[in-house]
Every structure is written in structure tokens, then in C-alpha cells.
Specification:
Number of helices: 16
Radius of gyration: 23 Å
Strand content: under 5%
Structural class: mainly alpha
Largest sheet: 3 strands, antiparallel
Number of strands: 3
Shape: globular
Distance between the termini: 42 Å
């Protein structure tokens, strides 16, 4: 039977819509799916990933684009249930929304995105430099020798001083005109001047301002490299490959419960909301994350759109002090750092 085939191939949430016979019933159920199931996920991701930097109409445009894509796919799913089923509807909504956010950022902030990619490549491929993660989860850039030492991170005030052209001489050839310097010379000059590692996002901002990149106000809470526009492509690139995330997840589930909770409810990387990548990349479904945290699936589904939680909210859930949450997460990160040491993203098995 047609309806049974659709139900077998798709998420149970879609069953009423797929099994509906009349056009009016299908329209009502489709509207309900979009408003009650997809809507909160879409709005939550747009709010957390694009923040308030969007004008109202721009946020609405992104939202409408996602809804349009979902309607097309759901109608296709109903027409061809065997070949076009959606096994996890909320995950599919999340993927579609991330892709829409990526497309928005790619079109609105092309120069900063290009600079960010170039800096990542430079820091990870030039022997003199390095990009590394601290046990607390912060990503730092600097001279390679600093990666194995305990060196204080450059302050934001120190970096602001660099924006005075007279404070930074890249080479005798360019003098104070840093905008014409090569990227490698500019980065070397920055590290030499501050004599300390620099937070990666702060480095991107500094280089963008020094080079006069106009669209450098791109929101930094969303790393467009994580998700590509085509859902059939690999979503995680360069820094977080699927294999690396899979190994990371296998280590996370072995942590004590309180450490897992403190980590996953506030899991961050270079950018915010890394826990969102687990279902997007197929490493772990939302239900599996809920089971790992020992939180009822329905409760966690409502909690999902609020992630990452702040430490005070996590402390309330665990019944501990806020500092205890910070300590739990540091302990979790330290263990993960030890267990993952030597496994470069994209090479874990």
C-alpha cells in the first residue's frame, strides 16, 4: 500500500502527512509540520548562527528559503516515498537550515570568508606556524614552537594597537603600508609584534582590518566551512572531518555522566554549537545524544534549540555550582585532548 511504503521509508513524524489522502488534509498536515516541528529548529539555528546581525527582512528571507526547500522535498517524499524518504525529519531540517545560513554568509561576506580559509591553510601548512586547540577548547594561532609551550595569549588591547599602521612594520619593502604585504609576512609580523599566540577569530579580524577588507563584520559564531551548500557533499571540511568527529564522539560517550553533560550542553570549537554537527554529519542523532545525557528524548528535543547552554543553566540542571560545571568541562576536555592527541582532523579511524 502506498501509505505503508511512505511510513516505512520516512520519519514517523511524517506519517500523517504521507498517509493523508485528501488535498485539504495534506495541506493542513504540511502546515502543521512546518510550524510545529520545523519552525522552532529553523528559527533556533538562524538565531544562534546568524545572531542579531541580520535585519528582520534578511532573517525572514533565510527562513522562507528553508521552508520553500522543505515544502519541495516533502512533496517529493509524498510522491515518491520509496526513493525519497526522510528518515530523520528534524535532522534534515537542521541540515537544510545550516546550508541556507552558509549560502547567506557566502554571498554577504565573501572577502572575509576567503581570508579565513587562507589563514587556516597558512597556519596548518606553513612549518613556521601552527593552529592548535587548548584543553579549554579555544583555537589559537602562532609560531609553531608556541604550540608545545605554556604561553600567555595576546590580549585584545595588544591586537588593537596593531591597527595603528606605525605600530607594525612588515618589511623594509612595504614599510607602514601593511595592506600591500603578503599574508605570510603580515602574519609573521603580527606574531613577532605581540610575542604571543592569538585567538584565531581575533587574528582573522586583525588581518581583515589591516588589509582593509570591508565585509569583515561577518558573524563569527558560524563557521561556514562546516556545511556546504549541496546536502550530498561532505559537510565537515579541513578542521573537522567526519572520521575525526566519529572518534571524538566515541570518546565523549565514555566520559562520566556529569562531564558529558557539562561538555555537550556547551560544546564549542572555533565556532559555536559544535554539538549541532553530530546529527548533521550523521555521527549521532538527537535521540542518541539525549540517551548519552540520560535526558528524556522529548525534553531534549525542546532543549536542542537553546544549545549551547550557559554554565549557570547547566549548573542548575546538575544541581552543582557554576564553577563545578567549568571544572567538569575542563576535566572532560583534558581527557579528550589526551585521548585524541596525535589524531589530526580527518585522519582518525
Amino acid at each position: 500500500m502506498y501509505g505503508e511504503s511512505a511510513a516505512q521509508q520516512s520519519d514517523v513524524l511524517l506519517s500523517p502527512f504521507l498517509n493523508a489522502i485528501s488535498e485539504a488534509e495534506s495541506e493542513n498536515l504540511l502546515t502543521s509540520l512546518l510550524e510545529e516541528q520545523a519552525g522552532p529548529v529553523i528559527k533556533g539555528i538562524i538565531r544562534s548562527k546568524l545572531n542579531d546581525r541580520l535585519r528582520g527582512e534578511e532573517a525572514e528571507d533565510v527562513y522562507c528559503e528553508v521552508v520553500t526547500q522543505l515544502v519541495e522535498r516533502l512533496q517529493l517524499c509524498k510522491a515518491r516515498p520509496v526513493s525519497d524518504g526522510i528518515r530523520d525529519f528534524r535532522n534534515y531540517v537542521a541540515v537544510t537550515t545550516y546550508n541556507a545560513c552558509y549560502e547567506y554568509l557566502r554571498s554577504k561576506y565573501p572577502e572575509r570568508r576567503r581570508l579565513k580559509n587562507r589563514l587556516k591553510y597558512l597556519l596548518t601548512h606553513c612549518a613556521a606556524f601552527s593552529l592548535w586547540q587548548t584543553p579549554e577548547g579555544d583555537w589559537l594561532g602562532g609560531f609553531a614552537v608556541w604550540a608545545t609551550r605554556s604561553v600567555e595569549v595576546a590580549s585584545s588591547e595588544t591586537l588593537r594597537e596593531l591597527h595603528n599602521a606605525n605600530e607594525l612594520r612588515v618589511s623594509p619593502m612595504t614599510g607602514p603600508d601593511v595592506s600591500s604585504a603578503s599574508l605570510v609576512d603580515l602574519v609573521e609580523a603580527i606574531f613577532t609584534k605581540v610575542s604571543a599566540p592569538v585567538e584565531f577569530e581575533a587574528l582573522v579580524n586583525s588581518v581583515a582590518e589591516l588589509q582593509g577588507i570591508k565585509d569583515f563584520s561577518e558573524p563569527t559564531s558560524f563557521d561556514e566551512q562546516y556545511v556546504r551548500a549541496n546536502p550530498s557533499e561532505t559537510f565537515v571540511v579541513e578542521i573537522e572531518q567526519r572520521s575525526y568527529l566519529r572518534r571524538l564522539w566515541s570518546e565523549i560517550v565514555q566520559l562520566p555522566l556529569n562531564q558529558r553533560t557539562a561538555l555537550l550542553l556547551n560544546l564549542r570549537d572555533i565556532n559555536d554549537g559544535v554539538v549541532m554537527l553530530l546529527p548533521v554529519t550523521g555521527i549521532a542523532t538527537i535521540r542518541q545524544i539525549a540517551e548519552t545525557l540520560e535526558i528524556p528524548a522529548e525534553e531534549f528535543s525542546n532543549l536542542w534549540n537553546r544549545l549551547p547552554l550557559d554554565d549557570a543553566a547547566i549548573a542548575l540542571r546538575l544541581g552543582v555550582a557554576r564553577q563545578a560545571v567549568i571544572n567538569l568541562r575542563k576535566s572532560a576536555r583534558a581527557r579528550l585532548c589526551r585521548r585524541m592527541r596525535g589524531i589530526a582532523p580527518g585522519t582518525a579511524k
